[in-house]
DNA sequence: AGCTATTGATAAAA
DNA sequence: TTTTATCAATAGCT
């Protein structure tokens, strides 16, 4: 939909790519807003440009985390019902299937236990801070990355110290 | 873009709403695919119709969980840089700010500790299963919901037992 | 960032 | 669903 048809393949010219990204990004966001209103739907969009620029949309009636949680639930349901649709009865497949799930559970437990140990080693605190290149997402200076849900006093102290900022 | 212009407000006729949802959904998904290829971007979309029908898209180079994790990180960065942009220097705000963060950290720790205790009480296993109404998403019968990342042998046994399915 | 010629998406109808 | 008349998005320029 422009002065000429284009084929859908990566735009090699970085400037054109950036301009197209910007225009189409707002196009998609607008479509998402319209779908939300017209059809009373819930939509969550997360996107990153190839330079790491972040954009998102979420319908006003919900939030991104809720949508992701719901996604995980539904994905679980689909896995389950896919198994049902495979036409095998539970009797038949559970011997093998349960062994697989048991293994997965073991794996998950190991991860959880490892994290718990890490946590205990560090006095229950897992925050950290580091300088990152965020591809122009934030101001052209250092960015501080703190793990979500784990704001960390020590991380902030470390950050401040690293940047020669005096804390009370 | 049709035989007539429409205003962006909820479509009251359920049939029209459904048809419009279906068409616009595929429109957005197509746009997302194109943006992915044209601009070498990463896009994740999760959506639910007002009847609970689930659809999603994710760029091939990544997956929905990775995108959500990245979203959480970037959201953290934005909170941080928003504070920076407030024009207050760290020296000035840290006395109050750190107290607030310390409180948040305390809260988070309480939650984590509570979960850990719950886990220990139940022998390290947190899966569960329940019958749900999933709005026509799956077959018109019982659905099994298992908490993501916590597949649970016991939950499956319980489900099977509840439905008179014999397990080996 | 704005401006159009074009292509693309889709509302209404079949 | 499929078709088609229209409206909307956007590619190439400035």
TrEMBL record, chains A, B:
Signal peptide: none
UniProt cross-references to InterPro entries, sorted A to Z: MADS-box/MEF2_TF, MEF2-like_N, TF_Kbox, TF_MADSbox, TF_MADSbox_sf
Gene3D superfamilies: Transcription factor, MADS-box (3.40.1810.10)
SUPFAM superfamilies, alphabetized: SRF-like
GO terms for cellular component: nucleus
Record-linked CDD domains: MADS_MEF2_like
Keywords: DNA-binding, Nucleus, Transcription, Transcription regulation
UniProt record, GO biological process: positive regulation of transcription by RNA polymerase II
MADS-box domain segment(s): 1-61
GO MF, one annotated term: DNA-binding transcription factor activity
Localization (cell): Nucleus
PROSITE patterns for the chain: MADS_BOX_1, MADS_BOX_2
Record-given protein name: MADS-box domain-containing protein
Native organism: Zingiber officinale
Native organism taxonomy: Eukaryota, Viridiplantae, Streptophyta, Embryophyta, Tracheophyta
């Amino acid at each position: 939909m422009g002065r000429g048809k284009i084929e859908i393949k990566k735009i090699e010219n970085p400037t054109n790519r950036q301009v197209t990204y910007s225009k189409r990004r707002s196009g998609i966001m607008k479509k998402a807003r319209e779908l939300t209103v017209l059809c009373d739907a819930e939509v969550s969009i997360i996107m990153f440009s190839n330079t790491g620029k972040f954009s998102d949309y979420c319908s006003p009636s919900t939030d991104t985390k809720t949508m992701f949680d719901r996604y995980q639930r539904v994905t679980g349901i689909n896995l389950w019902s896919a198994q049902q649709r495979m036409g095998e009865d539970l009797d038949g497949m559970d011997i093998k299937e349960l062994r697989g799930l048991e293994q997965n559970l073991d794996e998950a437990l190991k991860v959880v236990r490892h994290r718990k140990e890490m946590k205990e080693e560090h006095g229950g605190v897992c925050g950290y801070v580091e300088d990152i290149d965020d591809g122009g997402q934030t101001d052209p200076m250092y960015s501080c990355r703190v793990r979500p849900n784990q704001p960390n006093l020590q991380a902030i102290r470390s950050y401040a110290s690293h940047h020669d900022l005096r804390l009370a």
